[in-house]
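Teaching assistant here, posting this on the class forum so everyone can see the example we discussed in section. The complex has two components, and the goal was to see what a joint structure prediction looks like when all of them are supplied at once.
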Amino acid sequence: MTAILRPAIAIIALFTLLLGLAVPLAFTGLAGVLFPTEAGGSLVEREGRVVGSALLGQNFASSRYFHPRPSATSEPDPENEGTTRVAPYNAAASAASQLGPTSGALLEAVTERVAMLGGGPVPADAVTASGSGLDPHISPESAARQVRRVAQTRGLPEARVAQLVAQHTEGRQFGVLGEPRVNVLRVNLALDALR
Amino acid sequence: MTLNGWAQIALILGLVAATAIPLGRYTAAVAAGRVTFLAPLERLFYAAGAVDPARGMGWRAYTLAMLASNLAGFLLLYAILRLQGVLPLNPEGMSGQSAWLAFNTAVSFATNTNWQAYSGESGLSYLSQMAGLTVQNFLSASTGIALALALSRAFAAGGVKDLGNYWADFVRITLYLLLPLALILGLSLVAGGVPQSLSPYVQATTLEGGSQTIPLGPAAFQVAIKQLGTNGGGFFGVNSAHPFENPTPWTNLLQSWAILAIPFALARTFGHIVRDIRQGWALFAVMMGFVAAGVGLVYAAEAGGNPLHIAAGVDPAMGNMEGKEVRFGTALSALWAVATTGASNGSVNAMLDSFTPLGGMVPLFLIQLGEVLPGGVGSGLYGMLVFVLLAVFIAGLMVGRTPEYLGKKVQAKEVKLAMLAVLVLPIFILGFTAVAAVLPVATASVQDAGPHGLSEILYAYTSGAGNNGSAFGGLIADTPWFNVTIGLAMLFGRYAVIVPVMAIAGSIAAKPKLAASAGTFPTHGPLFVGLLAGVILILGGLQFVPALALGPIAEHFVLAAGKTF
């Protein structure tokens, strides 16, 4: 019996020290030296304060800003222990709606969102929740539909806002990978910087 | 569907095929003990365990050593998860997991399943992620590859007495194959934006004055091995849909490649070990054929969108975007869904629960086919070889000859053991689903009404027994009922297959290797590829069709009729 258990215990313990502590700690150190920004969460600062991460979406409700996609994240409800309440873009608890294709609740939500955006056809990403609940991007089509509203609220010419969106539209990586998209936090930071 | 979408899919699958050749050859060299650049470290492991790496083991000794190593890993992980509240590297003050949840999680990671009934950023300390889960991500993968090597050696020569030394295989695969690849991939992921940090979470003040908690952690290294080892357990709750876990289409390409690279390369390794490269290619062709067909089906279904939503005013151009990320779109989400379920990986970059009925059925069916297309690292190859034995047996019946594979006679004993291994999945998937579907304690966890609710339960047990780990996430899985039953499905889905497979290895190894004659059925040509694909579909898939008819297929017609629940 010891002939079987001795190697099992010793080798698992040794691998835990190597792969669970030594290598990850050294790797963390190396990553921090080589890619300090990325390893630290791609944080974005403005006037010395962290305003978010370039990779994570955040909630925008004001008409002065481009709005992100709907988000299905929630947070613990302080008034009702054990339950949660709606909290879009809560990065502490990534989540999707997980609603199925024949879900009545999903169809109702989509229909309501289409109506709020002034009727169809609307780009699909603008009325559906992302897989992470933290999608930092919207499609260029969804951004284009918001240009007039943002421009009017800010008293800017529409062409200026549209130009800003174009500057912040990321194409496919290497011309082929992924889909064209606009980073909502970045374009909104650029809007604020116009003043 | 767009041309660009297809180009991305072809690019990634092409990369996988191209790297399978050198990676397969390298793995064969590691298995033969010819790679030695970390020899002092390797010897340290043998010294600590008091094992002689040159001493061969028969199938029983090999299997017992494997079980002992897995048991030790399971117990250590269980202890870490229970005690994380009082252990160091816990800046967010996470408390220990409950007994049921820790059992489920420890089984899940020890069996290479990575089913997750918890959410990483809100429930695990950095120590649990690093010293607990990351280690098991490596070791459960090495376990699978070691077993596949042992079975492959059984076919290599006649009258083989031993299948290799488990500890040598286990240590070498970890040190020479998985660790270097994980380091390279991990650094590439950090460069692409995946965090690797031990700092506490960051509080940000958003542009509108709200606050946002930004989670961090030693993610990149764990994400690298989770993909390379076909583990799939996410560092963050939503797995590779999370912008931190998979920030760009480039990191998505790296990860999609990593998911498929080793399972496909092992088909090639098999060719090297049995000294007939063509045999490896035949297995490779079956695997790639199913993956390509699956991607086509899912991409078509998802790009078509949800007809109810289109009728409600949604532009169909982007397809079904509920649960998907803008940066990936439907093409990369479809490829990922098929890669991770064909390969027993189980990570997600889009939520399968929100896929269209047929788009969600393909991943479900791929797991049910036995996780051999290409399957998990190692487990895919040994599972595929089980189907190969059944295929040559059926071919032998048709022409009235004793079936042979690679010069080894396949007789009643091997065929019985192979059927035993194949029957494990239907027993645990359909059995548990049937019970759960009528048990109030289980149905209370189901989110969606109608046929989709059945799909959620069916998917959970399919994923558990298939050691996949992905989910129709609407199901509330962190309950004692699901933690225990899915835990059992994972255990039996892994070890109740491994033991008969290793018994087959022992039996095959001892047989003489016959020379090929004019009457030998060739097992490397298109005829055999077609036969093997048919056997997988019929013996692996047919028993699940009634359940699929009640779940996703019923839902497809309900959706077409415009009904919601």
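For the discussion questions: The beta strands of chain A are 43-46, 49-53, 74-76, 84-86, 137-138, 169-170, 181-183. Chain A touches chain B through 101 residues (CB under 8 Å). Think about how each of these relates to the inputs above.
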